[in-house]
Amino acid sequence: MENIMSNKLDRYDQMILDTLQKQGRITNQELAEAIKLSPSPCLRRVRQMEEEGLIDGYVALLNAKKLGLTLMAFIGISMDKHTPERFEALESTLADYPEVLECHLITGQSADYLLKVIVKDMDAYQQFLLNKLTRIEGVTGVHTSFVMKSPINSTALSVT
């Protein structure tokens, strides 16, 4: 979606998006009260933003530690060939790995891809690295940085 959409957003749209990012289960009535708009136009605005693709969907954010997932890492991956076929194969394979939370094709680094992964512990990371990641055709290098602390961890985008 083009960035032009943010220019069309008035203050009510911005408040709706901001509130929904922080309270995804809020009812339309509660949302309308929070932004000081009547329920009917509030719902129309939400539905329009959904239809236009500005709102991609709704999710529940889970507590990784309570699920036993305590080790997060960022992994730089270097590839042997920079061809669309090689990149598509890697991306397709990574999409099947539940450990991979994010995958980004990047520039400006020695790596071609940057992954955000989460696993139970160092043993699980070793298994992921040796049995999955390094076995992908074309992967020539892997560099891992482990997350020690996440003082800022948000999924909310700025809508102003």
Structural notes for this entry:
The mean pLDDT is 94. Helix content is 38%, strand content 19%. Helix 2 (11-22) packs across helix 4 and helix 3 (28-35) crosses helix 4. Strand 2 and strand 3 form a beta hairpin. It has helices spanning 4-8, 11-22, 28-35, 39-51, 84-95, 122-131; strands spanning 71-79, 100-105, 113-119, 139-146. The protein is built from six helices and four strands, in the order H-H-H-H-E-H-E-E-H-E. It is elongated. It has 160 residues and is α+β, with helices and mostly antiparallel strands. It has a four-stranded antiparallel β-sheet with strand order 2-3-1-4. It folds into two domains: 4-51, Orthogonal Bundle (Arc Repressor Mutant, subunit A), CATH 1.10.10; 65-146, Alpha-Beta Plaits (2-Layer Sandwich), CATH 3.30.70. The longest helix has 13 residues, at 39-51.
Q: What characteristics describe this protein?
A:
DNA-binding, Alpha-Beta Plaits, Arc Repressor Mutant, subunit A, alpha+beta, 4 strands, sequence-specific DNA binding, 6 helices, 160 residues, Dimeric_a/b-barrel
SSE topology:
Blueprint: H1 4-8, H2 11-22, H3 28-35, H4 39-51, E1 71-79, H5 84-95, E2 100-105, E3 113-119, H6 122-131, E4 139-146
GO molecular function, one term: sequence-specific DNA binding
GO cellular component, one term: cytosol
InterPro entries: ArsR-like_HTH (IPR011991), AsnC-type_HTH_dom (IPR000485), Dimeric_a/b-barrel (IPR011008), Tscrpt_reg_AsnC-like (IPR019888), Tscrpt_reg_AsnC/Lrp_C (IPR019887), WH-like_DNA-bd_sf (IPR036388), WH_DNA-bd_sf (IPR036390)
